[in-house]
Design goal:
Blueprint (H helix, E strand, L loop, with lengths): L5 E2 L18 E2 L22 E2 L3 E4 L2 E4 L8 H4 L13 H16 L10 E3 L5 E3 H4 L19 E3 L2 E3 L7 H6 L4 E9 L11 E11 L1 H5 L27 H23 L5 E8 L2 E11 L2 E11 L1 H6 L6 E8 H8 L13 H4 L22 E8 L9 H12 L3 E11 L6 E9 L8 H19 L2 E2 L2
Parallel strand pairs: 6-10
Antiparallel strand pairs: 1-2, 3-4, 4-5, 7-9, 8-9, 10-11, 11-15, 12-13, 13-14, 14-15, 16-18, 16-19, 17-18
Length: 459
């Protein structure tokens, strides 16, 4: 259930944009006209996507273009890569460790794993799946065209794996894990990338399941009539049911992070808000002297369960970002490395046991090249956003761009016109770049910024 944090901006220090199932500012937490620019691809996609004049073709399906279409060829080239399913990739290792924990710690009545795993669902979803099914209001900032990749007004690349939650609950599942790639337009730096990966879990309980181990549990109920919503519970839930569900959720997640981070781990819970859970919490762990946000979670909104045909049950959900965990646990310094096909990177994660500790040994650090770009903004402020510029830079420079920083802003005292200056850091992960090849890319960015974003260059 979990938008790129649907909406919590990812931690700037260590973390990639992890939109986890439960974030409301990224919405459970790290555009422009569709373009035919050629981007450097990291590898062949299973089926070559095509952005045509009238339609967008991806994963064997065609979607008509309209005024909302803003997905780019560079982003579509990532669809189908499924790094979380690539054996011995660091994201795969984290996913497999989480799976192994749930498989071993939670066993069903007949000795089978209680949780099923779903890690190959298509990232192309409807807007209803991505937002409406999770009770995200029509005016919520997480829906903005500037923050998402739309194929058209009704179809998009999922911004969080929670887009599939309703369909899985409706299919009759009471306990499942879900992993996949998610897509979000964002800034450019070492911890943000437009494609990242999430994993979430959902667990539903019937009246009997929740209270079976409680003395006189047959006299307790999940629901009450005429109740009021409070910081502790939803209006239809009994307080005793919510407290028991909250205890089970926090115990489950504490065991999970203890397995991931190791032994004596200090954990704290922070109250927060998500549109799809109440009450809602973020979990932080004390790691190497700092508090690190690990995941978001909460008691699922009953309206979600009612609409999915599970209105007789209560449930909890959590969501986390795989890149965030991998960067911390394996000491990976740059999110672009996850897309590298450099054997020096990949071979470090070919371990015989997924639980085996890995500490990434940095590759040779090639020198950066810095180039600035300054321009006057369009008079209409609504016609330009920073994400538009980031997306344009990423579409042209691809993974050669390490970081884009706004270094100066200026407002002309007489005309009132606004100017911005961005510093673009270029660095190849596997070789030394020349200023000549970077200059060609930078000049293309300058030209495209004027023609596509309506800015006036100050070069």
């Amino acid at each position: 259930m979990i938008l790129r944090q649907l909406l919590l901006p990812p931690l700037q220090s260590l973390t990639p944009p992890l939109l986890h199932p439960l974030c409301a500012t990224a919405l459970w937490a790290n555009g422009g006209a569709a373009s035919r620019r050629h981007l450097s691809a990291d590898g062949p996609a299973p089926q070559q996507p095509v952005i045509g004049q009238e339609s967008v073709e991806v994963l064997g399906h065609s979607y008509p273009r309209d005024d909302f279409t803003n997905v780019t060829s560079g982003i579509l080239a990532k669809v189908g890569r499924n790094l979380h399913n690539q054996s011995h990739h660091p994201l795969w290792l984290i996913k497999e460790r989480i799976k192994a924990h749930f498989y071993s710690a939670y066993i069903g009545r007949w000795g089978n794993p209680l949780f099923s795993v779903h890690d190959n669902l298509s990232p192309v979803v409807t807007v209803e799946q991505n937002f409406d099914s999770l009770l995200i209001p029509p005016d919520h900032p997480s829906r903005k065209r500037g923050d998402n990749y739309y194929l058209n007004r009704s179809t998009m690349l999922r911004a969080h794996t929670s887009a599939h939650q309703k369909e899985l609950v409706r299919s009759g599942l009471d306990a499942f894990l879900l992993a996949g790639d998610v897509y979000r337009r964002d800034e450019i730096d070492a911890s943000h990338y437009p494609v990242f990966h999430q994993m979430e879990g959902v667990r539903l309980f019937s009246n009997h399941e929740l209270f079976s181990k409680v003395q006189d549990g047959e006299d307790l109920s999940l629901f009450e009539v005429g109740g009021r919503r409070s910081p502790q519970k939803q209006e239809t839930h009994t307080l005793e049911a919510v407290k028991l569900l909250e205890f089970d959720l926090k115990r489950t997640l504490t065991r999970l992070v203890s397995q991931l981070f190791g032994g004596d781990l200090e954990v704290r819970w922070v109250d927060c808000y998500f549109p799809f859970t109440h009450p809602s919490f973020e979990m932080e762990v004390r790691f190497q002297g700092d508090w690190l946000e690990v995941l978001g979670c909460g008691v699922m909104e009953q309206e979600l369960l009612n609409s999915a045909g599970a209105g007789n049950k209560l449930g909890w959900a959590f969501g986390l970002g795989l890149e965030r965990l991998a960067m911390v646990l394996y000491s990976i310094p740059d999110i672009r490395l996850f897309w590298s096909q450099d054997e020096r990177f990949l071979k470090q994660f070919r371990v015989t046991d997924v639980q085996q500790p890995v500490c990434f040994q940095p590759l040779s650090k090639y020198p950066p090249l810095l180039n600035d770009i300054s321009f006057w903004l369009p008079e209409s402020r609504e016609s330009f956003t920073e994400n538009d510029f980031y997306e344009l830079v990423r579409s042209i420079g691809g993974d050669l761009v390490e970081k884009v920083s706004l270094v100066d802003e200026f407002t002309h005292p007489k005309t009132g016109r606004r100017s911005q200056c961005y510093r673009i850091t270029y660095r190849h992960m596997e070789r030394t770049l020349t200023q000549q090849e970077v200059r060609l890319i930078h000049e293309q960015i300058e030209r495209s910024a004027e023609t596509e974003l309506g800015v006036q260059g100050r070069y």
